[in-house]
């Protein structure tokens, strides 16, 4: 293990970077003029709690801000070095973290802590915490995996497609096409219609639910970006909606 990796894994380094990361995201939140889509979103979201906040991995950085002070929320984060940094940021933003992630190969799920984290998500929902969940197949951007469908099926809780975007951002050439919001612009917190996954669905029904989550997540991101006069950086240029 290199010296840089050992430093990056240290608790002190991750806590320091977590403080800086959380402080920066709060700055972005404060200096952007955010609106809700739909405008009365919390009026119909509150009775749904606890629910599953579906998000795309590359657009997840600002999602913690959909949590109001009175709302309890948890999420699962990988056991990687990057996951340690994300954990330090999220905890400072008031989100409880469970370590673990899914895997493209079923044989790797246990080693990555995916089973344990899924059980933690089920317990969190049962205890009244909403759960933010990255819907992507691991390392495959914008393709919904089976994990979020399984969580919705086993918990009985609705999935709410969610997008939090800003008009000014940095775009990275990473596997998840991550965006980092910048200060002094406009922002939108957008929500799609809740999606339920009945426990007794057959394989065809489960695949239909997976496709609906994927389609609705892309649609809510396209809608959010259009409202700030931008286009979804992953799915190409579209004419923004007039404001």
TrEMBL record:
InterPro entries: DUF374. Residues 68-140 form the DUF374 domain. It comes from the Bacteria. This is DUF374 domain-containing protein.
